[in-house]
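[Q] Does anyone have a clean structure-token version of this?
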Amino acid sequence: MFPLILLVGCGETEPSNQSTVPANQTEVPTEEAESATEEKADVIEEDEFEVEEDEVGRSQIYMKNRELGIRETMGSIVFEIDKVQTVRLEVRPDYRFLFDDKEEVTIVSFNVIVENTTDETVTFYPDQARLVTNTGEQVDADLFISEDVGGEFLGKVKKEGGVLFYVDSMPEELTEVRFIVEGPYDEQFRQIAEDRYEYKIDVTK
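[A] Here you go.
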């Protein structure tokens, strides 16, 4: 699994080693704290943004909304997008191959929940969604850095995880994005709901 903290940012649990020390004060760490910090991604507050570091790079979290509240019934599929966040990532050299050798990218990440409510097999791919930004970019979800939340749902199966996109625009340039996903279909490749779904999502800070 991709080691970047972006998926944690969309999850339920806040990073446990987040610092809340104001920028004008100094915290003297104990030996135990120093040791624990070496094993985890560094998390600090920089100005108004959370900044986290791990082996992939340095991430500045620009905005996050943990109560997005998008819920759609697509035939037997119940689809939710409950969290979104935008991050500016400075990529370390060893991981730039994941991002077309770019030194910096903006990540837009969503936490999605997909549940098949029937015993029948249904196929649905939210991890192959597309993103259109107000800045004119159109990108596909990155399968390598996203979690496995799509494919065949063999009966009453539920999946949850992060769907991630990377774009060139700066986070502060993004005001609205459109999350576009193809509808689910059955074992005979017949659509069981609409062909396509589109969600407009506010990503202003």
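[Q] Thanks! Anything notable?
[A] The CA atoms of residues 51 and 60 lie 4 Å apart.
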